[in-house]
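Annex B. Sample input.
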Amino acid sequence: MSYATDIVIDMSNLRQNVSGRRAVLSYIMPAILYAAGIFGLSSIPDLYSPELPVIPFDKAAHILEYAGLALLVNRSASYYLRRSSSQSQYLLSWFVVAAIGALDELYQSAVPGRTPDIVDLLADICGGGLAILLIWWRHRRKVVPQPLK
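Annex B, continued. Sample output.
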C-alpha cells in the first residue's frame, strides 16, 4: 500500500461542511501565519538567545516552535485529507514542517548576522516529529477496538 495513493482531497465534500473561504481561514491561515512568524524571527539579525544548563536555548526554541507548527499543519491536513489514512496525514504534515524548516535555514543564509545550521534543521525536524508522535499517540488512545461479530 502506497501512502501517496491514499491521499485524496475531497473538495466536493468541503462545501457541505464549511464554506471554502471559512475553511481556509480556519484551517490553513493559522499555519501560514505561524510559519510567517517563524520567518519573521529569522529576519532579525544577530538574534540573542540565552543559554540553558541542559540544552542550548536556541535548539529548545527550534523544537518548540516547529512542534507548534506541526500541530497546526496536521490540523489542516486532517481536515483536508480526512478521507485519507491518518498515517498519510502524519507523513505529509512532517514533510511540510521539514520543508519549511529547510526553507527557513536557507532564508537565514541571506540575512546579515544569521547563518544556516544543519543542527537547527535537525531540531526543527525533531520538534515536528515529536508533535506528530504526540498526535498519533493521542489518536491511538481514542480509538477503541470494536468487538468481533
